[in-house]
Amino acid sequence: MLDRKALDTVRQALSRQACVVLIGPRQVGKTTLALQIGELQNALYLDLEDVQERDKLSNAAVFLSAYEDRLVILDEIHRAPDLFLTLRGLIDQGRRKGLRTGRFLLLGSASLDLMRQSGESLAGRVSYIDMTPLSVLELPAEARETLWIRGGFPDSYLAPDERQSLDWRKDLLRTYLERDVPMFGPRIPAETLRRFWTMLAHNQGALINASRLAAGLEVSSQTVSRYTDLLVDLLLVRRLQPYHINVGKRLVKSPKVYIRDSGLLHALLNLVDHNALLGHPVVGASWEGFVIENLINAAPTLTVPGFYRTSGGAEIDLLLELPGGARWAIEIKRSRAAKPARGFYEACEDLKPAKRFVVHAGMERYPISENIEAVGVRELAETLSQLA
Q1: What is the pTM (predicted TM-score) of this model?
Q2: pLDDT digits (tens, 9 = 90+) for 169-191
Q3: What are the φ and ψ backbone dihedral angles of 94, each rounded to 5 degrees?
Q4: Is 100 exposed, middle or buried (0-12, 13-18, 19+ CB in 10 A)?
Q5: Alpha carbons 237 and 4: distance in angstroms, whole number
Q6: Which of 13, 40, 204, 343 could form a disulfide with 127 if both were Cys (CB 3.0 to 4.6 A apart)?
Q7: Mean pLDDT of all residues in the chain?
Q8: pLDDT score of 184
Q9: Residue 119: what pLDDT?
Q10: How many whole angstroms separate alpha carbon 209 and alpha carbon 373?
Q11: In this structure, are residues 249 and 310 in contact, taking their beta carbons and an 8 Å threshold?
Q12: By the 8 A CB rule, do 132 and 98 touch?
């Protein structure tokens, strides 16, 4: 059993709020975490994927009222979107009886629709928590390379060997294409979406060019945008937005796109192990995406991530605007030689960030210059987590 940092976060949220929504990709460990919490709190667990479990909620208000003194865990809540109005009434009734916290824990695999549905019905009664794949802070330092190659889905990371890990990830991709995508989005041919997903993998970390992607798929630019929105909503793709500031220079305005889990990226490109990855052109972009995901996940709540790039070549790979307004500029290097590019210095002159880091492939932490520090991804993630 892996210790997940989300466990304490969810328990704290339940201690202050009536309803908590735990959002994360399929197979990321939400159910395992919820069952741990259920054992600690004598909770009622219902899996709404099961027709018999859903039938119990045919008269949800009556059924759930019988368990008002216990935590109720509703897994795959997107299967029963009509429940949100019922939950609102039950929460309000409970408040009048003094039952103000720890009533419901909802689990879901897609963010946009779930947050909209719950936000409309449960405003002021709900807390949202994102559950990500395993991070460098949840594993020993020596596991970093394995985590990068296999990704953070627990079953992929814990597989007996590289081949079985890759096969598990390919099965997950197929599940998304044939089952989850039709559930959450409009009818999209599975093969077309697979081609699109693979195209994004080949363009990991690049500025999104909808017209070029549309030409390759023989669809419209609007269709490409819809495909991208769907994968973002399923928490499989990150759209990293450019940072805008009035510096009198021409700034890049297109977002960059990353496959969020490095293991899924490698599965899309059929890269089975470390040697295969190191010989592929995506290796640098894969490492960049891996670092970006771990740092964003470690950063305090309400941190705004982005990147900065001008037409003249000034660039910051990851810019974190922390709560309070302080900006941290981060350059990402796959090599152990943490030497910033000239564009990083120029970008820092434009933005004047409070702190400047170069994340390299090693674990050492040392100064590069008076105001730039070289650091490993785990070390910087620890620093960010301590700010939370």
Answers
A1: 0.91
A2: 999 999 888 887 776 656 678 88
A3: -65, -40
A4: middle
A5: 22
A6: 13
A7: 91
A8: 64
A9: 57
A10: 34
A11: yes
A12: no
Q: Are 34 and 105 in contact (CB under 8 A)?
A: yes
Q: Which helix (H) or strand (E) covers residue 142, if one does? A: none
Show the 3-state SS of 225-270.
HHHHHHHHHCCCEEEECECCCCCCCCECCCCEEEECCHHHHHHHCC
pLDDT at 195: 92
Q: Walk across the sheet containing 315-321 and list its strands.
A: 304-309, 315-321, 327-332, 355-360, 373-376, 366-367
Classify 361 as helix, strand or coil: coil
Cβ-based burial of 333 (10 A; exposed 0-12, middle 13-18, buried ≥19) = buried
- Give the Cα separation of 342 and 256 in Å (integer): 21
Confidence at residue 121, expressed as pLDDT on a 0 to 100 scale:
66
User: Model confidence over 93-143: pLDDT tens digits?
Assistant: 999 999 989 999 999 876 555 556 555 667 778 898 999 999 999 999 999
- Residue in 309, 2, 321 with CA at minimum distance from that of residue 131: 2
Which DSSP string do the residues of 107-138 spell out, in sequence order? EES-SHHHHHHHHHHHTTSEEEEE-PSP-GGG
The β-bridge relationship of strands 355-360 and 327-332 is parallel
Q: DSSP letters of 3-55?
A: PPTHHHHHHHHHHH-SEEEEE--TTSSHHHHHHHHHHHHT-EEEETTSHHHHH
Structure tokens at 368: 């590069």
Low-confidence ranges of the chain (pLDDT < 50): none
Tell me the domains of the chain and their CATH numbers: 6-130 (3.40.50.300), 136-385 (1.10.10.10)
Sign, CA torsion 287/293/297/300:
positive
* Number of neighbouring beta carbons within 10 Å of residue 297: 21
CA atoms within 13 A on the CB side of 384: 35
Report the largest interatomic distance among the alpha carbons of the chain, rounded to a whole angstrom: 66
DSSP H helices in 270-333: 274-278, 283-298
304: left (phi over 0), alpha (psi -120 to 50) or beta: beta
pLDDT recorded at residue 111: 59
- Token pair belonging to 380: 């910087």
Question: Concatenated DSSP letters for 325-358?
Answer: S-EEEEEE-SSS-----HHHHHHHHHH--SEEEE
